[in-house]
Amino acid sequence: MRKRSQRLWFIGAAGVLMAGAVTLGVIGLGGAVAFFQSPSDIANKGVETFKQNVRVGGLIEIGSQSHGADGKLLTFKITDCKHTVPVVFDGIPPDMVVEGKGVVAEGKFDVDGTLVATRVLAKHDENYMPKEAYDSLKRAAESGGEQAMTDGTMTCGDGSAT
Amino acid sequence: MIIELGHLLAFLALGAAAAQSVLGLTSGGEAARRLAVAGAMFAALSLLTLIISFVRLDFSVELVAAHSHSQKPLLYRIAGAWGNHEGSMLLWCVIMAGYGAVAALTMREGKLRDRALGVQGLLTVGSFLYLLFVSSPFTRLVDPPFDGAGLNPLLQDPAVALHPPFLYLGYVGMSFVFSLAAAGLINGEIDRDWARRTRPWALGAWSCLTIGIALGAIWAYYELGWGGWWFWDPVENASFMPWLVSAALVHSLIVTEKRGGMASWTVFLAVLAFCLSLLGTFLVRSGVLTSVHAFAVDPARGTILLIGLGLAGGAALALFAWRAPQLKAGPEFDPVSREGALVLNNLFLSVSAALVLVGTVTPMVLQWLGEAQMIAPEAASMSIGEPYFQLTLAPMVAFLLLFMPLAQAAPWRKAEMTPLMKWLLPSAVIAVVAALIALAMGGWGVFLGFGVLVGVWVVAGVVQDILRRAGAGGWRRILKLPLTVWGMAIAHIGMGIFVIGATVETAARTEQTFPLAPGQSAEMAGWKFEFQGVTIVDGPNYIATRGDILATHDGRTELLQPEQRSYPVSEMGTTEVAIRKTLGGDVYVALGDQLRDQDNVWRIRIAHHPLIDWVFGGAALIAVGGFMSLAARLRRRAPANAEAATAPEAAAPQPGAPEAGVGASA
Predict the structure, then answer these.
(1) What domains can be seen in chain B, in order of their start residue?
(2) CB of B358 within 8 Å of any CB in chain A?
(3) Tens of pLDDT along B389-420?
(4) Residue B391 and residue A24: Cβ atoms within 8 Å?
(5) CA–CA separation, B345 and B247 (whole Å)
(6) Which domain range does residue A13 map to?
(7) Which residues, in sequence order, are CB contacts of B578 under 8 Å at separation 6+?
(8) pTM to 2 decimals?
(9) B interface mutation test: which of A88, A120, A124 has the most B CBs within 10 A?
């Protein structure tokens, strides 16, 4: 086999493979992408407009964690100090998911407007909060909320997330 | 005073590296060699002073005050030295200088060694500048606190104490491969000898990276408390991309070494592997991403890391663009041949790396575009999850494994497909039967079926290949097979076992949460769990709530004690799961939270993770195989011996068609 045809064969194979992979990637992306929304975004646009996966960031509202009637689910509310989003999660969340602390939940909304979370993220560190939780509060603050910002962390006006 | 000594030693190491780079790149090879050894010693002693400060709990050192505490056990005081950003960067510098020293002491004299030491010196200078001026671990506090703030309790764990050193041995190991590539390009000599001398470094770094990633996965599995070992999280992907590219590299180096082919591609991979290591460090340390593993971060440092990445990568690619056209092309080969198979291997691995890169970087690029107000903010913040990675990578891995046994048995230059396939028929039959059994037992999933099929196909194919190589010689002959053959066989079997374990575990894992009051019990996966209540137990620097659960299976009862630990110093909690190993997998019990509305009812999560040990065991075998190949290289370093040792393998006839082997002995 000649040099030239050898190279052509190589390039052809790479091209076919990349094309296949990109196709798969695009199909995969369709179901795997989750856009970030703050609780205010969801309230303003209406929860029914969100059919796909979403990521919601904010603080866990104090006093909102509960385990439901049968104790199998964890429910809580994510707040940006202006609006809240109810979340339900089947399982035991990571250790840092604590009331008043930052959290990011990912999943789809059910018919009642509750976010059925498939993933719940918090940070591995006591002093920082997830970027998306921080952004939620910052956006709400910019539109006239009462949040206090300290060095990568945010709380609602009175120091608690109510 | 000791930390000031460490600071001084770090400056000395910087000076040594600077001199090493100048001398190595000009004509002072011997001096560069001595400087490399001296610089590494300075760096190591500097790290030692930091470790001593941590062990002695010198809270006047800012880093110790921020990351240690008097109640912390000794092991984690030591590991605390690199369990934070600044300390881990010092470890990075030490390892980078260390690779230079090892090269200085072991490599054959010549232009390649000297230039490589020069380039390595430059990289070391860059690392030390970053360490000393952007993230210095040597800062003193004017007003030292009475006690420290404590190590993040999630990191107080043996696997994660060893995770950074191995990960860095892998990441930074790629720096010396990069240096060898740059040196080869400067010399204009990317040939068989270059490949023979580069491959041990690539193998060592790649094997260490494998161990580092596996340790991280093991830690995530039992420490994060929800039983996942891989989340397709950006931080994990950051280590997976260099792994994929260096896996491609250790294979393309074989073609360059044995046949002189693929030279420019191999060099390109060597450059890329280190650039992706730097990109990984940037992703983890810059705070551009939200991740289950994200720690305290600083965007300014990220920018500097990105500039460093741009400089190193840009310079190397410019060098590559300048020299690559002059590199000699290798001898011709047929697409159906071992070269062809290794080309396919490289295609699948590098396309996989590209897919992971797209999935990891897209959200960050969009975010950046959003911040620059080039796209609407609604479109700018998103994440790409597991389905993308599973859907795109599963076919790549399936193809990779389908070709693996064929590649192992195909001769160089030209192979005959039909006899190869006929010869491998037994493996194919075994694989199909195994896949059908798995599907019948675990439900009819495409993912599960293909995973078991290709995994068993690889394991059976490798065993067949070993038997073929032994020929009529029997067991005695099998044991005498060259170490390179064993290294390849074990790594490939490890890959097969890993894929079987990963697909079975992902497809067939079960988990359920039970709210239980003392005396109540739950049943799952053939086990009965009786909850007896909780007790409070004091640990060295934590308070544990320990659940007592009597687990009964096949008439035998044993006590499982999952814990929830609370660390008063850092106001954090961790979950310590109880794991009962069985032949088929792990029974995994985690103590959750107490019910809000009922007294003394605890949520207990019970999971069954089938074949989970195959996941970690497979990864371990891959690393062992890599180290065996490395050992084989070290045993025959002299070029004359190397020629002699490769000859018999190259001349080995193709299985099933002895007459087709004629072309292979050329």
Answers:
(1) 1-151 (1.20.120), 156-413 (no CATH), 414-508+614-665 (no CATH), 510-613 (2.60.98)
(2) yes
(3) 888 888 889 999 999 999 988 888 888 888 88
(4) yes
(5) 9
(6) 1-32
(7) B549, B560, B561, B562, B588, B589, B590
(8) 0.89
(9) A124
